[in-house]
Amino acid sequence: MSPITAERKETLLRRYGSKTINANAGPGGRRPGGFRGPGAPPIGIKGGKPKNIAATINRLLAYIGRDKVKILFVFACVVSSNLSSLGGSYILRPIINNLVSAERSVEEKINNLVMGILILACIYLVGVICTYLQQRIMIVVSQNALVKIREELFRKIQKLPLKYHDAHTHGDIMSRFTNDLDSVGEMLNHTMVHIFSGVLTLIGTIILMFVTNWLLAIVTTATIPLLIYAGGLIGKQSRKYFKDQQQALGAVNGYIEETIAGQKVIKVFCHEETAMEEFAFLSDDLRKKQIMAQFFGGIMGPVIHNLSQISYAISATVGGILCLTSNFDIGGLTIFTNYSRQFARPINELAMQMNTIFAALAGAERVFEVMDETPEAADPAKAIEICSEANKTEGARVVKGEVVLKDVTFGYIPGKTVLKNINVIARPGQKIAFVGSTGAGKTTITNLINRFYEIEEGEILIDGINIKNIKKDSLRSNIAMVLQDTHLFSGTVRENIRYGRPDATDEEVVAAAKIACAHSFIKRLPEGYDTVLEGDGANLSQGERQLLNIARAAISKAPILILDEATSSVDTRTEKYIERGMDQLMKNRTTFVIAHRLSTVRNADKIIVLEHGEIIEQGTHEELLEMAGRYYQLYTGAVELD
Question: What is residue 423's predicted lDDT score, i.e. its pLDDT?
Fold first, then answer.
């Protein structure tokens, strides 16, 4: 097989390396609809620096500020820990001067040494205790804040309108809970304390150096600009190569995700060798960029350390001269060189923390972006509740299920109309079918009935009540839906069916399964109705998953039923069983059916033909055939239903 061309290499890097992939996303990283196939752009997460640092920091501080007492105690511990470290070093001055003093006897020197060691032990013990407490309490504070943020984010996700989920991939939303909050947690757990501690250590070290000897302090601090310049230069290169590394990592992860998801397609068309060769190229590209990123990331510490060693050597030399010429004491020189040696450490630590801080603030900003999204419109103050005759609720208005659409006009994007002046009347118990080409607006109508989107013009009535005046929860609980895309939750088969009505009895669960023709295959499962489903029912066939989805709708007592390509995922034989069950399911329910198989809508009370968002024909099966129009052409195969 010929090697991949330079053009193909450039295409791979452009398509897969354009954004950083969330490695933890899994199958949720794709839009509903399944496999995108090798060659499609990867779904990624945004990176880079935060746009509004001050506002993001203030919001984070508001979360940890709820534990003000603990925060104050943590900072008190940090101050105490730093003072003990700095103070312990300074106490070495009199201890050393005592040992080299010619005026004291050996016994006095030993007594003073023992006393000094005991004082040092007490000071450092206090420092150890304070360090332990600050770490332990700060972790509690940060985890409390993360729990609050995570819970608020999840609650907000539940309140966002469907259009938000349509516009954002599952992987992108999940990355807010995983990668972004992990970055925030890392900063809250350690970085904030390290920064505060580093600043205190730096300030305290400079003060004590000037207290010890102002001339040596000036010599030492003169190297600060050099340390800052070197750190900034290396940091700039480090950020550049780390960005390249993340893009290359995104390319590898994106390619792995799509090739694993598309294994069947790859094997059918014998693309295994091509896939391995392309992956080898992407993996090698990642290796090269990782080497550069890790090199510049790794030399920061050694460079700063060696520069500080130069400062240390200069300070020691000048200090030695001062001891010989200006009566500078040996103890002072000892502790000053110690301060000089550790002078660069907090600077280095602060520089190393900047990438962590920017990553955390960028992640927090992405989380807050979701929190700031506009939720679904609140119910009006006088909104009413509705219920079905079979499920009467105190204080709710009983509806029979008449649905009327009056001059409904709608567009997902302002200025781009999807539906134009739609007028439909569905009497209680009637079966209304929508047929038409893809994009004609069939599913949009059902989304509007559920108020997943708000209409621009016209109105939708249920038993004469405008759905805008009905509480959303009440409205949706009285509309059962069977969608083309099935979704099963982790849990037993019984629990998944009962999801349609939590208070249903076991007998009602079985009855619903029988209506959906699911009872026979459920009984063949290892534990029957108590079989645990995982991975969206991965151990079931697509048809079996759809049967459970139908059973979930069957158990509901909702007076309105929507079937959106409900039988598209089952074979013809299973479809016939389902149709018989559906006839029983649809009794006394107003039903809206969307189907590409025209044979499934022949017995509908009314068939509505949509094209380009407008109703072009409507009537019964026989009436539409007599018209010899669009429906006739579709039914006879003169034109295809695309």
Answer: 93
CA distances from residue 107 to 16, 46, 92, 100, 111 in whole angstroms, order as listed? 76, 69, 19, 13, 6
Q: How far apart are the first and last CA of the chain?
A: 38
How many whole angstroms from its chain centre is CA 313?
A: 50
Out of 326, 343, 371, a domain closes at 371
Three-class secondary structure of residue 562 per DSSP: strand
* CATH code at position 538: 3.40.50.300
278 compared with 306, residue with greater pLDDT: 278
Task: Say whether both 357 and 504 belong to one domain.
Answer: no
Domain boundary residue, one of 557, 576, 592: 557
β-strand partners of 480 = 561
Question: Residue 42 has which token pair?
Answer: 């990867």
CA distance 298 to 238: 9
CA distance 306 to 39: 48
Residue keyed to tokens 């208005």: 397
- Which among 570, 408, 402 has a CA at the least distance from the CA of 482? 570
Structure-block tokens of residue 153: 């984010």
Domain assignment of residue 168, yes or no: yes
- Asked if residue 271 is part of any domain, the answer here is yes
- The total of structural domains in the chain comes to 2
* Beta carbons within 10 angstroms of residue 351's beta carbon: 22
For 79, the token pair is 């101050």
Q: How far apart are CA 225 and CA 237, in angstroms?
A: 19
> Does an H or E element contain 406, and which?
strand 403-410
pLDDT at 43: 33
Tell which wins on pLDDT, 570 or 550.
550
Tens digits of per-residue pLDDT, 168-195? 767 667 778 877 888 888 888 877 788 8
Helix, strand, coil percent values for the chain (each to nearest 5): 65, 10, 25
pLDDT tens, position by position, 62-101: 888 888 888 889 889 989 988 888 888 888 888 888 777 7
Full DSSP string of 219-254: HHHTTHHHHHHHHHHHHHHHHHHHHHHHHHHHHHHH
Q: Is 127 inside a domain boundary?
A: yes
Written as one letter, the residue type at 231 is: G
CATH of the domain at 199: 1.20.1560.10
Candidates 215, 203, 205, 219; CA nearest to 343 is: 205
> CA-CA distance, 369 to 175, in Å (whole number)?
13
**Residue 84 lies inside a defined structural domain of this protein:** yes
Handedness of CA 222, 224, 230, 233 (dihedral sign): negative
CB-based contacts of 577, cutoff 8 Å, min separation 6: 517
- For CA atoms 362, 365, 370, 374, the dihedral sign is negative
What is the structure's pLDDT at 19? 42
Domain carrying residue 499: 487-557
Nearest to 91 by CA among 208, 6, 13, 246: 208
DSSP 396: P
Angstrom distance (rounded) from CA 275 to CA 257: 12
